[in-house]
Structure formats: structure tokens, C-alpha cells
Design brief:
This protein has about 230 residues and is an all-alpha fold. The protein has eleven helices and no strands. Helix content is about 70%, strand content about 0%. α2 (about 15-40) packs antiparallel against α6 and α6 (about 90-120) packs across α11.
């Protein structure tokens, strides 16, 4: 157990909370991509059964394993054919940003519920200390990880959503040049993330910002609730 704890990016005792959070976060993230792509006229995701909240459809085993051991990962990407959109660039941006925004929304909703449970005495009214601890662990994990996924996916490097947004923002000639180096960019990105010591300058700063974002929204809701 101690050996496994050293290998994992997250503390072993918190692993169940991370797994539950990832199932919810990844499912809604990919559903958001698929939903808006289908809404804008691209049936690709719908034909593949991706416009669904069924986690099994969006689950990517390797992506989950990497997130647990390296601190980052992915779900099964939703295939999108932008040529089916009436306005490919504008609608492409919306489809790409829908995933990260779903994680932002989950983080904010988590803060709302967590702050409400505090301010209305729900947590204090629970006699079982283990249940109280589990509630704290779950919301801390759920909120911070969703805010992390929101920011991480907006990094403008392939294969992240931020790169797809960048592709739709730049002129076509620039986009063509970006695509020439895309396969190498992915390799460079993975090396930067995986090289020992680099996480202190890549992944961990994003987690720190995610924590700051969680404190920001929790304070807002506590104030609104009269705390």
C-alpha cells in the first residue's frame, strides 16, 4: 500500500473521491462537446452514441490511469466534423469550449452546495465523524479537480481543447502551419508533463490556481448565504 501511495499522484485514501469525481467530470465534459456538435448540425457524435451521460461511453482507460499516476489524463475524445457546421469557426469554438466550461460549472455548483451545507448547519448536524470527513474529502476533491480540468483543458497545446480553440481563432494559413507540427507538439507536450520535476512548473501550479478559485467561489457563496 505504501509503495502504491508513492506511485499515485493523489493520496491513496482520497482515491475513491477522485475516481467518482473523474467519472462525473469527464462524462459531462465529453457530453457537452457531443451535445453542442450535434445541436450545430454535426451528427458524428450522435451516430457513435456519444450524446449521452453514460460514463462507460466516454471512459478511456489509459487516460484515467495517466491522470491517477501523472496528474493529467483524458476521456475518449468526441469526434467532431466542423465541415457540417454552418459557421465552422464560430461553432467550432463553442463546441471546443463547452467541455472546459462544463467543468467550471461543476466546480461552481460544488462550491454552492458545499457552502450551503456549511451555512445551513447540515454538516454540523451529522453525528458520524467519518461521514463528515468523507463529505469534506469529496467536496474538496470535486471542486478543485473540476477547476483544474477547466484550466488544464484550455492550455493551447494539442490534444487539449485550448489548442482546438486556437485553431479556430487564427487565420487559415496559420492553422495549416500549426497542423504540420501538431504530431510533434503532442510529443513535446507529453514530455514536458512527464519529465520528473517539470510537474512543479506545469501541473502543480494549475492545482494551486484551482484551489484559489475554489476559495474565491466558496467565499462568494458564504457571503450570499449570510456567512
Amino acid at each position: 500500500m505504501e509503495f502504491l501511495d508513492q506511485l499515485l499522484f493523489y493520496p491513496l485514501e482520497l482515491l475513491p473521491f477522485y475516481l467518482i469525481t473523474l467519472i462525473i467530470a469527464f462524462t459531462l465534459h465529453e457530453f457537452a462537446h457531443a451535445y453542442f456538435a450535434n445541436k450545430f448540425g454535426d451528427p458524428t457524435a450522435k451516430l457513435l452514441g456519444r450524446v449521452t451521460l453514460n460514463p462507460a461511453v466516454h471512459f478511456d482507460f489509459l487516460g484515467i490511469i495517466l491522470l491517477l499516476f501523472a496528474g493529467f489524463g483524458w476521456a475518449r475524445p468526441v469526434p467532431v466534423n466542423r465541415e457540417n457546421f454552418s459557421n465552422p469557426r464560430k461553432m467550432g469554438i463553442i463546441v471546443s469550449i463547452a467541455g472546459p466550461l462544463s467543468n467550471l460549472l461543476l466546480g461552481i455548483v460544488g462550491c454552492l452546495i458545499y457552502a450551503g451545507m456549511y451555512q445551513f448547519g447540515i454538516i454540523e448536524g451529522i453525528d458520524n465523524a467519518k461521514v463528515v470527513q468523507a463529505i469534506h474529502f469529496f467536496f474538496d476533491t470535486f471542486i478543485v479537480l473540476n477547476f483544474f480540468l477547466f484550466m488544464f483543458n484550455l492550455v493551447p497545446l494539442p490534444p487539449l481543447d485550448g489548442y482546438r480553440i486556437l485553431e479556430d481563432l487564427v487565420p487559415r494559413r496559420v492553422r495549416a502551419k500549426l497542423q504540420q507540427f501538431e504530431q510533434w507538439s503532442i510529443l513535446v507536450f507529453l514530455l514536458i508533463i512527464l519529465i520528473p520535476g517539470f510537474q512543479n512548473y506545469t501541473i502543480r501550479p494549475l492545482y494551486e490556481k484551482a484551489y484559489e478559485l475554489s476559495v474565491f467561489f466558496l467565499n462568494i457563496f458564504k457571503t450570499l448565504f449570510g456567512g
